[in-house]
Amino acid sequence: MRRARIPIVAALLGLAGSLAATLALYRAAASALDRVQEERLRGAGMTASELLGGGTATQARLRSIMAANGLDGAYVVSPALEIVADATGPSGVRADLLRVDATRVRAALGGQITVDRAYEVGSLTVQTAYFPLRPRDGAPAAVLALEAGRTFAAARARLQHALALGLALACAGAVALFVVAARWSRAESRALEAASRAARGEATARMAAAVAHEIRNPLGIIRGAVELVRERSGAQLVARDRERLHDVLGEVERLRVLTEDFLDLSADRPLQTTPIDLGEVAAEAAHGNRTIHPELDVSIGISAPPVSADPGRLRQVFANLLANAAQAGARRVEIRGGSRGDHVGVIVADDGPGVPADLRERLFEPFVSGRSGGIGLGLAVSRRIVERHGGTLALVDEGAGAVFELRLPQQG
Q: Is the pTM of this model over 0.70?
């Protein structure tokens, strides 16, 4: 069973690996996009600060810097945190501290260039870069601030779409792999179960053959001795003693049938086929069953052409079905059938309690019985006999009791 679960575990590991790889690629791409934007801001700021350092920053010049570099904003901040010039807004006003980072402005006045995320507008993340503006051969007198975000918004959106697509493909691939793995696991489980049943069946066959051979000879001796006693002393025996001898012979017959079942289970004995009338064979089985189960009423109505079969083995099939019905508590069994296309179909239906739902799947397996103390060989042997004739034996849902359908091929 552990082997059967390996593909499922592999599918789960594959899903985890695919998700981890997709997320890692997304983080790497997002980081690369941030670095590209940072370098772009840094390059634009270095060039612009050189241009503006020796002259006056005007709104027109800042707008040209924005247009040339695809920026979202460009403005100049004084050491007093006033807007000296702004490409998109008024100048000479106090800087909005929600937009302007005073700490980074002071760092830029000290000569430090910084590029970092500043704020977000909806789903748009805006990066800002601060550059010192130095008059020629002088200390920084102002700070140039550049903003960028929209330039890479489309690229970020495509990256997020790629992430969603990658996750979807990873999940779809994992689901497909899981389905294949689950099917393989079920097939492997069935194969293991079949191998286990085959091994059990082989051991059972060997045991059955040994038991049958050990029982057959003593049964013959017991049967012969009882019949001899009945023949020689029948007139001297009281009715109760004659009944006892009859019971002994009935039990001997039951054991003989059980022995035959063991032999059929252990080996495929050759079939002695001949054209037979299924109605006559069923009647013979009913007559034999009457000795052991006189309380069971059997009605037979089979109208079908002869079939090529072993009469003794098919008689055993009918006998097993009748015995099962009687032992289950049935009082009446109907055997009916006829020609159905290329085969003959026979229904054996009783008025007993039926077959429990939990036994239906395993009903024809050896040693599976719904009765306390039942051996569970009759149906397994019966199906094997019928299948050796090229037919089928199955439980069908056609009544309140147990209903079996026997199919045999017609003579060609």
A: no
- Closest Cα partner for 312 from 343, 281, 277, 350? 281
> Which residues, in sequence order, are CB contacts of 76 under 8 Å at separation 6+?
52, 57, 62, 83, 84, 85, 86, 133, 142, 143, 144, 145
Rounded CA gap, 111 and 138, in Å?
A: 12
Non-local CB neighbours of 48 within 8 Å, separated by 6+ positions? 65, 74, 131, 144, 146
Residues 391-405 as b/e (b if ≥16 CB within 10 A, e otherwise) read bebebeeeeebbbbb
What does each of the 412 residues of the chain score in pLDDT, given as a tens digit? 555 566 666 666 766 777 777 777 767 766 777 777 778 888 888 888 887 865 678 888 889 888 888 888 899 999 999 998 999 889 889 998 888 899 999 998 888 999 888 777 666 778 899 999 877 666 678 899 998 877 666 666 676 777 777 777 767 766 776 677 677 777 777 777 766 665 665 666 666 656 665 676 677 788 787 778 777 776 777 778 777 877 787 777 767 766 766 666 656 667 888 999 999 999 999 988 887 888 999 999 998 888 999 988 899 899 989 988 998 889 999 999 998 888 999 999 999 888 888 888 888 887 777 666 566 778 888 888 899 899 999 998 766 789 999 999 987 6
- In one letter, which amino acid is 275? P
Per DSSP, the three-state class of 250 is helix
Asked if residue 131 lies in contact with residue 99, where contact means CB atoms within 8 angstroms, the answer is no
Please choose, from the candidates 140, 136, 134, 131, the residue with its C-alpha nearest in 3D space to the C-alpha of residue 112: 131
Tokens read off for 362:
């395993």
Q: Start-end ranges of CATH 3.30.565.10 in the chain? A: 271-409
Domain with CATH 3.30.450.20 in the chain: 2-159
**CB neighbours of 15 closer than 8 A, spacing ≥ 6?**
170, 171, 173, 174, 177, 178
Q: What does the alpha-carbon distance between residue 53 and residue 389 come to, in Å, rounded to a whole number?
A: 106
What is the CATH T-level fold of the domain 271-409, as seen in this structure? Heat Shock Protein 90 (3.30.565)
- For CA atoms 17, 20, 26, 29, give the dihedral sign: negative
Would you give the distance in Å from CA 178 to the centre of its chain? Answer: 9
Show the tokens assigned to 386: 């019928």
- The CATH class, in words, for 2-159 is alpha beta
Query: Torsions phi, psi of 116, nearest 5?
Result: -160, 165
